[in-house]
Design brief:
The protein is α/β, with parallel strands linked by helices and 200 residues long. Helices cover 34% and strands 25% of the residues. Helix 6 (154-165) crosses helix 7.
Length: 200
């Protein structure tokens, strides 16, 4: 299995019992080290490759399944990125991403604090259009995932949102009032995309 944007292994290590060997690609060396330690703890064979995709694709061998977990919105050239994923998958590529941008829920706060209207694109539909333009027959399933901030205190919400809005403690009271009027969502829609490769 090849996991592009492996991070700490949140996606591929859930499949550790079936994976055999996992190759994790990521830009972040610290996260790769965490992934490696977790894989070793589970007794899973693993290899780490530090670098961006598809720049390091030539250093990576094909795998039966290629995963890509919450990376797409950070990709500048999705067509080239997806082509390299497909070229490395013997059977299937699986991509997970939020249906809208993961920070789309921040739009009301940007408008209230800075007077800035945030774009409502790209979305997963734009990604599917790009993939289809590459001749891929993409299947999809949409589902709900709880936001990681659930369980944080109100102060944690305010601090987190203030940081994302690039404002300091002097505006925390204002942010708190905004959060009370427009609470952060407790879940967001996620889409799993997958396509079979020519050899699959």
């Amino acid at each position: 299995m090849l996991d592009v944007g492996v991070g700490a292994g949140a996606a591929s290590l859930r499949l550790a019992a079936r994976a055999g060997h996992i190759v994790g690609v990521d830009l972040n060396r610290e996260l790769l080290d965490v992934f490696a330690a977790r894989a070793a703890g589970l007794g899973v064979g693993h290899t780490t490759i530090e670098g961006g995709w598809p720049e390091v694709a030539s250093m990576t061998s094909p795998a039966d399944v290629v995963l890509c977990h919450h990376v797409v919105y950070n990709v500048a050239d999705l067509a080239a990125f997806a082509d390299a994923l497909t070229a490395h998958a013997v059977r299937r590529v699986v991509v997970e991403l939020t249906t809208t941008h993961p920070l789309a829920w921040m739009a009301p706060y940007w408008k209230a604090v800075h007077g800035l209207v945030q774009p409502d694109r790209p979305t997963v539909d734009d990604a599917v259009d790009v993939l289809a333009s590459r001749g891929l027959e993409v299947s999809q399933q949409r589902w709900q995932r709880r936001l990681q901030m659930i369980g944080e205190s109100d102060a944690d919400h305010v601090n987190r949102i203030a940081r994302r809005l690039c404002v300091g403690p002097d505006r925390h009271a204002e942010i708190r009032r905004l959060v009370e009027r427009t609470p952060p969502p407790d879940a967001r829609e996620v889409t799993t995309l997958w396509w079979e490769t020519v050899d699959g």
